[in-house]
From TrEMBL:
Gene3D superfamilies: 3.30.450.190, P-loop containing nucleotide triphosphate hydrolases (3.40.50.300)
Region spans: Disordered: 1-20, 262-308
GO CC terms of this entry: endomembrane system; fungal-type vacuole membrane; Gtr1-Gtr2 GTPase complex; nucleus
Compositional bias annotation for Low complexity: 279-288
Organism: Candolleomyces eurysporus
Principal localisation: membrane
The protein's name: GTP-binding protein
Assigned protein family: Belongs to the GTR/RAG GTP-binding protein family.
UniProt keyword annotations, A-Z: GTP-binding, Hydrolase, Membrane, Nucleotide-binding
Length: 387
């Protein structure tokens, strides 16, 4: 096969035009032919139905995908024959390496290629995150799936230890993934979180929101890709995560059908990619108190503080929200959605009784949560722009 051609720039996939001056976090996507690399990107960031991934063409040259989420990403989709020498960039330029292995494949060749890149990356940038997606997991029965996953894990580690015993402690993470369920979204979310320097602050805001809003679980999702960029300190339950993904997908599907009929000069219409305000629009923005959240139970009268004139995010910006009752029986559970930034949304699980009786105060808490998140994103953007 011919040598890899120079990298081509791929236009952003629906996340808006990337900032030209912004420094992007680079992610290297590797794997053998038909392992599923391009399918992963298209399903996550271009909303390609999983059944249509079968018709995707084989990647023949390095393609750079620009993706704007909580941080700007540049994901390099590579052909099967790429090597460290033909990549076109030093491995030290990348913050993470994702290697995709077909779970049904013969393991010798992909593991050899993976080990080659792990050794080279460790020399170029010690401590770089290595993520291994054992992909197409839907092809096997549960017992075979777990056994193949274990074999791949063991063989990679054994091969590395044979080269150097110190490689036993390299930060390598293995995930079972499939484009046909939410395992891909959950796994890629964990990869993304390691790249977000502001993650501790995002998590702390979610912890404060949950503690003061009686929410047992909350996620900060990227709206388009349905990756969660942060969550609170409580363990992630796959069923709850899957439910949030499905709800967000439903809102995305029907969002283009809705427009704000009251839109005028002082109010912007939501973009076609913004989920619909099926329940209620959030309150107008109030001044920044650096993420402070008002506790739900004690307050009764809320007086908005005057809006500072120089705030970066205008008061008139439209922030849709939505809610759905999951279990109508007592005590009941409600799943709520609130748009936080152009790319991010808060999805929180709440007792239905709290949502029904304290809805205004909950939305008031969302206002301050939104301001905290926006300040963090603004600071991240200023750092990347060199400001």
């Amino acid at each position: 096969m011919a040598a890899v051609e120079p990298a081509a720039v791929h236009p952003p996939n629906g996340h808006g035009a990337p900032a030209a001056a912004a420094q992007r976090t680079k992610v290297l996507l590797l794997g053998l032919r038909r392992a599923g690399k391009t399918s992963i990107l298209q399903v996550l960031f271009s909303q390609l139905p999983p059944k249509q991934t079968f018709y995707l063409e084989t990647t023949m040259r390095v393609v750079k995908h620009s993706v704007d989420t909580v941080i700007p990403l540049e994901i390099w989709d590579t052909p099967a024959n790429v090597t460290v020498e033909t990549l076109g960039a030093p491995l030290s330029d990348f913050s993470s390496i994702i290697f995709v292995i077909d779970i049904r494949d013969l393991y010798n060749q992909p593991i050899s290629k993976l080990v080659e890149f792990i050794v080279a990356a460790n020399k170029a940038k010690p401590g770089i995150a290595i993520e291994v997606f054992v992909h197409k997991a839907e092809k096997l029965q549960e017992d075979d799936k777990i056994e193949n996953y274990r074999q791949i894990n063991d063989r990679v580690l054994d091969r590395l230890i044979d080269i150097n015993p110190d490689y036993e402690h390299l930060p390598i993470n293995f995930y079972l993934t499939s484009v046909y369920d939410h395992s891909l979204h959950e796994s890629f979310s964990k990869v993304l979180q390691k790249l977000v320097d502001s993650l501790p602050y995002l998590e702390e805001l979610l912890n404060v929101f949950c503690a003061n809003s009686q929410s047992p679980k909350a996620f900060l999702f990227d709206v388009r890709s349905r990756l969660y960029v942060a969550t609170d300190a409580s363990p992630v339950d796959s069923a709850t995560h899957n439910l949030c993904c499905d709800y967000l997908q439903m809102l995305n599907s029907f969002g283009p059908l809705y427009k704000s009929i009251t839109a005028g000069p002082g109010r912007q219409r939501p973009s076609p990619n913004t989920p619909p305000p099926t329940a209620t629009s959030g309150p107008s923005r109030t001044p920044s108190l650096r993420g402070s959240v008002t506790s739900v139970p004690p307050a009764t009268d809320i007086t908005p503080i005057p809006h500072p004139p120089s705030w970066k995010h205008p008061k008139e910006l439209f922030y849709p929200s939505a809610a759905t009752t999951l279990h109508p029986v007592t005590p009941g559970t409600t799943l709520t959605y609130h748009l936080i930034t152009r790319h991010l949304a808060l999805l929180a699980v709440l007792p239905t009784s709290v949502w029904d009786s304290r809805r205004g105060l909950l939305e008031y808490n969302v206002v301050f949560f939104r301001e905290g998140i926006q300040e963090i994103c603004d600071a991240e953007e200023e750092v990347r722009d060199g400001g």
